[in-house]
Amino acid sequence: MGPSSSRRPGFSRRAQLGLFTGYVAAVAGIIVSALLVLSARFDPEGHSAIQSFFTDMFAPVSRTLRFGQAWLDGGEEEVAAYFDAASKNKAMAAELKAARAALTKGAADARELERLKRMLPLIERQDNVIAKARLVASTGSSSRRYALLGAGSVDGVQPGQTVIAPSGLIGRVIQTGRTSSRVQMIIDGGIRIPVQRVTDGMPALAVGIGDGRLLINARAAGAAPFNVKDVFVTSGAGGVYRPGVPVAYVIAKNRQGTFAAPAAAPDRFDFAIVVPEFIAPLPPVPDALPREDE
Amino acid sequence: MARVAQPRIGQEPSLLRRQGIPIGLVMAGSLLTMFPIIATTAILPPLGLLFMLSWRSLHRDLWPVWMPLFLGAFDDLFSGQPIGSAMMLWTIAFLIMDATDKRFVWRDFWQEWVLAAAMITLVLTGGLVVANLTGGDTPFLYVLPQILMTICLFPLTSRLCAALDKWRF
Q: What pTM was computed for the model?
């Protein structure tokens, strides 16, 4: 005889009934939650309203903890620096040599960049920053890559707006609470960003794959024309993301495709700005437009 | 008067103590995602799930079968998954564990671990399917490390639950 269990109630009518009700409740619950999941697929707005209410409640906690973490991180690095001082010295000497060469090249590149920026036919619009806020946390145990931003509808943040860090594009707002909002990061699987190579403006599509990297797909058919270290910025095609924001740089290229790392390293970003959704300027309407009803 | 309510011999500890500690631990595990780490990939183990499975393997009668509905709902609010995902998957896992209880009367820890590993794989894979169904696009390969890590953590959380269990009574 094994250990007794309330799951085997014996002949007690009452216990049997209670157990049966429990199972009915569990199965009913499974069905209800399956419907909730489906609501997330077919009615994302309604679904996210419930979610953001709760994120609001707990964002202050993350915000405070994040401040402490930044402070701790600094200390750890300082201590570690003592341990490999000699080898680091050697490495730094070599690095300095390389840096001098790179500096010369950088100066040339800067001139080139200046030229390209002038060439960009798109109007550099004034940054109308909606909000500045701290990115406080992310969904670490889910396969989706969302970050939590410490600004919400009170600050004017709306779903669809773009979130940018000083070093590059972070993602876009997908739901807002009153004081916090959820940001879909560019590394989330299921986000597609039209980009172009900085040097020659070759268009491509950056696709998040969910492991911290992006896949760079060339728009044109044929072999992947991109090389390691190529830098990609948003092209502004199709709206949403305004042009010229750094997105990613290529880190590896193999038979599976061209992989890039995000320009704004997700584990390093701190403050971010929220800017409105980009709407590509429409071409001017010709004066003598034939009317359809005539 | 204002002593800490230490249960006396022959007296049941309070409901708060009996149920509050396990439920609180599971909820605290679910809240771990609010810890300020911005992860580039699904790296954190789902601690809420782990604690729930650990309590379940420790006391099969601790919770009625509908309990994971509420624990899962709480987890869904913070995990970034659509609401309903953990509610559904955790309850299914509980029902499966109940069904296996009927087959095996006696169990040792290895069996518990294998069963928990199966449930972890089921829930995390199911979670990925749900996430991909609602707009994500992550290949299975990238959650594999998370699954393995979570399975390896199970003995640890079981020990923790056992230690808390001693204190609970």
A: 0.62
